[in-house]
Fold Fatty acid hydroxylase family protein.
Amino acid sequence: MNKVPYTYANKGSKSMENSIIHSLTSISWQGAFLVFLIENVVIFILVIVIGNLITSRFSLRPVCLPPPALTPAEISVWLINVCLNTLITLAGWHLWKNGIIQFRDGINLRSLIDVIVLLLVMDGLMYALHRLAHISFLFPYIHRYHHRFERPRPGTLFSLNPVENIGFGALWLFVIAVYSTSWFGMSAYLFLNVAFGTIGHLGVEPLPKSWARIPVINYIAGSSFHAQHHRDMNHNFGFYSIVWDRLFGTLRKGYHKQFGKIPYDEI
């Protein structure tokens, strides 16, 4: 297989995709860093803007008490993690250029399956990593900072210990190095990852109360699920679903009854 694994097929229908891939192949690392920095800054701004719009729209459906005033220190950590996300993206680009990470082209059934596979695999692995971060001798050094924010806001998605952020980034790069996904699968997963992260830290529940009663659908994690974890550190460790918490007995008791509400012990 070519060192930069990409099949230039069906050029007429994929000229834009080909152009992007060609640009990423030929760009210098300094140019790539600038592109990825802009990309991550745009993602950060969208999370803050869209997250706050949703929070305002559903302000009558809080799942936690209002967050305290934003501090310069918290904003600084957000910006540090945006820079770290840029470096992680740059590391992925370097691995791709050297053939360690490989992507397939095209959008078809297999690329749609890629999205499902990545969501399931990453959900399971991040559940395990999250449980590991809660081990008593690791927690103070890795995960305690994130739990300082019991009342999350959209930006809390970026309120991470840098070590934890690097850990999640390294896990992601490992997965796509082992599992050769499609460009579409990778891109769709990353979009959903940001969407789930934003929803999980809204502090309000945009989903209807009936959501918790719909079979299968109610296995998808939302704002209520993660807000309860910020309040109760021993439960609700999942990211995209409640599957692993159900399987390993860590789903908070009364989760469905308290869906869309402020947990009883916080009022």
Remarks:
- Residues 1-13 have pLDDT under 50 and may be disordered.
- The chain has one domain: 15-266.
- The longest helix spans residues 29-57.
